[in-house]
Every structure is written in C-alpha cells, then in structure tokens.
Amino acid sequence: MTDVNLTLEDADALVMRVLRTNGCDEANARAVADTVMAAERDICHSHGIFRIPGYVASLRSGKVNGKAAPTVKQIAPGALQVDADRGFAPLALERGRQPLIDLAREQGIAALAVRDMHHFAALWVEVEPIAEAGLAAFAWTAATPMVAPAGGTKPLFGTNPMAFAWPRKDGSSMAFDMATAATARGEIMIMARDGKQAPPGAGIDAEGNPTTDPNAILAGAQLPFGGYKGSAISMMIELLVGALIGDKLSFEAGEADIKDGGPPPGGELIIAIDPNRFGDPDGWLAHGEKLFDAMKAQEGLRLPGERRHQNRLKTPSEGIFLPKSLYDTVCGLEA
Amino acid sequence: MTDVNLTLEDADALVMRVLRTNGCDEANARAVADTVMAAERDICHSHGIFRIPGYVASLRSGKVNGKAAPTVKQIAPGALQVDADRGFAPLALERGRQPLIDLAREQGIAALAVRDMHHFAALWVEVEPIAEAGLAAFAWTAATPMVAPAGGTKPLFGTNPMAFAWPRKDGSSMAFDMATAATARGEIMIMARDGKQAPPGAGIDAEGNPTTDPNAILAGAQLPFGGYKGSAISMMIELLVGALIGDKLSFEAGEADIKDGGPPPGGELIIAIDPNRFGDPDGWLAHGEKLFDAMKAQEGLRLPGERRHQNRLKTPSEGIFLPKSLYDTVCGLEA
C-alpha cells in the first residue's frame, strides 16, 4: 500500500479538524497544529502527525485541557513563569515566547519556566523562533521514566531532550535538538511499528540485558547517549525542569500519568540570551558564521538542522507523505 | 621509583613558591594554587600539579600576565563581564564569583562572561562554590583546536568542557564536569606520558584514521563524545565562549597561541540560577535530593563527583602521591 501524499495545507486542515472535534478550542488547536506541521514541513515524522493519536487520546481521556488558557507572570527580574493550565505545551510556549524575548533583550539573559503542561513535540520548533528574533536559546524538558542512568538497570530519567539555537546572518537559525537518550523515543516507536531493529546501545530489556528489539526496549529501558556523560546531562535536565522550576521529575510524571498514550504532565525551562548585550554587539553574528564556515570547509560536514532546512524548501511544493495506515487512523479520529 | 608523598600543605607551599618565583604576584599565585590544590585534594591528577610546568612555561614566555588585575563590570542588568587582563583564569573567576552570586539572587538568573584569560583547570572547581552558595551553575570554556567535529577529519573544536553544579542539602554540591571530547586532553597526555593506549573512539591520527595511540591522537585529532550529539554540544560551546561573549573560537585561539606548553588565550561563560526565585522556594532542595535518592537506590549507581568527595575526606590526612619525575620537575622550576 502506497503512502498518502498531502499538501501542507490539506494536512494542516486535517489536523485542525481532528483537534477541534476532540475538544481543543481554536487557540490550542492552532498552536498544536503549528507545532505538528512544523515537524511535517521539515520531514521529521516522529514529531509530526504520528503524534496526533496521542494528542487525541489525552483529550478524550480528559487528562489534557483542550481549552487551556495559559497565563504568564514575572517571578523575578530575569525570570518568567507560565502556568500552562493543564494544556498541551504549544500554546503555553507561544504565550511565553515574546515576553521571554523582550525580557532577554532588556536583561541580557532571561529564563522562562513553563509548568503544568503536557509536552509531545520537538524542541527545535520552540527555540528556532527565539533565534530568528536574534537571541541564543536553550530548552530542556523531561518526560516519563524510560532511560536507565549509566550504570543502572531501571528506567528513571526521561528521554530528556535539550535544544539550542543560534541566529544566522540570513535571519534563519541553526538549531539542534537531541534526546539525551541514545535514540529518540519516537524513533524507537517507529522502529517498533515498522518491525525494524534498534541500533546497539539504544537500550536494555526488562531484565537489564542489552537488546536491539525495539519492543523489548520499550518494555525495559532506553540508555543515555555517550555513557556517563549523556547520563549526567539527563540528570541535569531532571534537576532543571523538576526541582528548579517546581514541576515533576520524570519518575514523578510517570507516577502521575494515567498512561492514555498521550504526553505525561511536566515542565520545561527555556533560557534566552541576547548577544547584543554581551561583549561584541557588532561582531557576534559574523563570528558565529566564521565557525559555521570552518565546519563546512571539512568535506562532508553538515551543520545541525541543515537537512531540516533543505526539507523545508521542498515540502511546500511536494507535500508530505503519510503511511496509509497512519492517514486512515487520523481520519478516523475526526468522528 | 616510588611516588613522593606530600601533605596538602607542603604541596601547596611548593606550588606557591614555584608560581611566585616565576612571576606571579601573591593574588594570582594564591588563586592558581587554590585551583591546582583543589584538584590534588580530590585526586584529579590531570588538573593538579601535573599542570604546573605548563603554567610556568606561560609565565616564562611572557604569554600570561602573572600580575594580572582582573576587573569586573556590569554589562546588562543580568550580565557581568570580567576582563582577565591576560592572566590565568582562577583570579578572574574568583573576582567575578561573588558579584555573579549576588546578581543571580537579585535577578533569578545571571551570566558571567570572562574574557582575555588563560584557562588550564577543571571547571568543577569553578561551579562548586556557586552551588555551595545555594545556586545552580553552568560553566563552559573552549580551548585550542584538538577535536574533529563528528563526520570531519581535522581538529576544529577544543575539548570544550561543560560543567554543572547543584546544591545539596548538607551545604555541599553535586557537580559534573565533562570534556565534550570523548576523552579529556589531560588524560590523553597522561596516557602518552605513561605509555598507555587510549580507548577506542578517543581520536584519529593525522590522516583521519581511528587510532588508540595517544601520541598519534595528540598529533591528529580527538573525537567528540557521543558522536553527533557531543559534537553539537561542542559547537554550542564554541558559539557561547567565542561569538557570544566576544572572545576566541578554539581555532582562533590556536592561531593566536604561541604554543609554549601553557594554556591558550580564551574566554569562559558561567550562568547562575537561584532556585529560590523560581517555582518552589521551599521545596526545591528536597526535590533534588529525591532524585539523588532514586538514583542511589539502583545498585552500583554513583552520583557524578561522588568519588571526588570521598577522596576529599582522605587527602587531608593521607596526603597526595606525586610521580617522582613530576615532583623533581616541579622542584626544578623553583630555580
């Protein structure tokens, strides 16, 4: 059975209809659809329409508030907090974004803590607009316990992604976004769906033995990337989005979650920095480009996110390709 | 030939004499010795007295100003900048530390950019005191080009360490400090000195071929930890301590350095965050401990830095053990 080819506009309209029908108000549907469609536009399937059944499950179970009205407040001269009102992350992040950008420009550096949200997306979508506004940005979030710390055998950390974005001279951005798990959960889910093997080092089974069976990993534990180093970074993210901002550690989220197939409850921390307020206001942009040029001078080297930016040029004319089974599933969620 | 056993006090006195004799004023000698002796106290040889010949080489060549008078200024409501006056990093960092702590408490989050310095130390020494003051802290610095980006063949990045520290309930801290290179440069230098092999994945030779010969790696390129993920983090650190703060990228530092065996010129960025200004002022400390307890409940798991803290309890009574050849070399630098 062939894939289904949809224009970005038609795919967006489908996503919007499904979200509205299942209890999202217009603002939440629009924010979630923008996030999902940014992934589809860049051909990042694991965070695109593939996630819609999970979003819908959490609306139908009542776990997530489809009509959430996130509110932003300033909690310190350099820090903002968004109460996400038990909604999906995208609207909360959208509401906090411009205030964060404004505050970072004023202060030099500022933080945005988002609490009481449900996150099911890629982080690059969230830091790219901040970099396109001329700021450097970090983002971190946690999840449910799926990753054993290096040296351990039981899930404790989330896949705990971190992202970083930096402004480019053409007004675009360089952004990377990595799970601190060796392999993104979404990719392992897709490997399981497609009957493929996971790469060695991706995880261990429920008894703690190494395995490349994606279903065994989903039932056991993923492993951090880079051994003890990636494990330390994952732990840092737990501290930042759990203890620091006053939301849930991954294992607390796992205990609180009703496991309806959608995103668990949790928080997110974003830090934005305005290079214009630091040491070289006139030169920093060209200085970053000098690094990128030196990287690209090495044959075969690509910048992080370069493939996404190339895909972004193609999908507006070529559309996207969805597996027929996924397309049928999502269409079935309209009812 | 056996190692030489010295008390911490005698080792400190030796280091101070060597630094003074070679052109450090009292403040700079004290700050460098404190940093070197913190590493010795925790039995981190690669950043301890092993570095003294390099420090001295840079004083003798005139590259580093042993009488540097670092100055701190506020460059934005949330950001400080230290002009290190072409000195070693420790005094510049010491001068910036309390102002950074004060500013982070006031603002919620604050950054310290140190420029025009020469860094030859471990970063955990620099973030632990900030965490002991009750704040979370990040630190990043770059170096000379020694690491090929993932997918590349030529040195471009430094070993670019990052550190993070978090306050503990007993007033101490959890700190990790990792080179984004697969293996710390100092460790490869020690492997070369001791005639040992480097682990697979540590680096490539001058022709770009994988090797475990530490001398071939020192002449070729190290590799980042964790493949493309570690490489992206290393790139991020270049942007932060080069372009953002207006100091040198690693390859610029390599061009500017006179290669006297001591530390290259460069910058450092530290970010401090006050959890008391975020979402859970009364609960964050216990919340962090809850994570640490869950980690330690997995058999065999240690927290980052735990071994250093154990060593710290031993060396005041047992002293430290220096290879005789290193001890003789350092004693020879008194003349």
UniProtKB/TrEMBL annotation, chains A, B:
Protein name: Ldh family oxidoreductase
Name of one Pfam family that matches: Ldh_2
UniProt family annotation: Belongs to the LDH2/MDH2 oxidoreductase family.
Record keyword Oxidoreductase present: yes
GO molecular function, one term: oxidoreductase activity
Gene3D superfamilies listed in its UniProt record: 1.10.1530.10, Hypothetical oxidoreductase yiak, domain 2 (3.30.1370.60)
Keywords recorded for this protein, A-Z: Oxidoreductase
Tagged with keyword Oxidoreductase: yes
Organism annotation: Hwanghaeella grinnelliae
Taxonomy, superkingdom: Bacteria
